[in-house]
Write a structure and sequence with these properties.
Four Helix Bundle (Hemerythrin (Met), subunit A), 4 helices, mainly alpha, elongated, 2 strands, two-stranded antiparallel ribbon
Length: 150
């Protein structure tokens, strides 16, 4: 997921914003995320290297965002699936995208830890146990958690 975030910054967020700033209503490109993932081969990379890459990419992206003017926020591009979008919308989607992945990481971690809590599961009634069912049976199966990676 860390490599995906770095690549999304470069291609789909900061990359698209740069296109929108330098061209009049550019036609934005779609990326084949499966192909990008295969090319990056992140599963075979050290997580520290991925985190370093992401930190560098995100710092550069944050600098670009800080330099945007109010007029820049209204620049537009044409997304191949949804049509005309503004830089300001893309910025909001960027944050939403990141938060979605933060939630996926949290759910993956909770799912991983849940069965090891033993009796401590009782401290988490929001995962609630119905009579006759274990509390963990009320959690989505790992295979149904969006973005779950084993």
């Amino acid at each position: 997921m860390v490599g995906h975030l770095a690549e999304e910054d470069k291609r789909d967020f900061a990359g698209r914003i740069q296109m929108m700033l330098h061209e009049a209503e550019p036609r934005l490109l779609l990326n084949d995320q499966g192909q990008v993932a295969r090319q990056r081969n992140d599963c075979d990379r050290d997580i520290r290297d991925l985190l370093d890459e992401f930190a560098g990419v995100r710092n550069a992206s944050a600098g670009e965002v800080e330099r945007l003017s109010p007029a820049d926020l209204d620049r537009t591009g044409v997304h191949p699936k949804i049509g005309l979008i503004r830089v300001r919308e893309l910025l909001h989607e960027w944050l939403y995208h990141d938060l979605n992945h933060v939630q996926q990481i949290e759910r993956n971690a909770q799912r991983f830890l849940w069965n090891e809590l033993g009796r401590m599961q009782a401290f988490y009634p929001s995962h609630g146990a119905n009579p006759g069912r274990s509390a963990s049976s009320n959690l989505p199966s790992a295979s149904r958690v969006p973005g779950y990676v084993a």
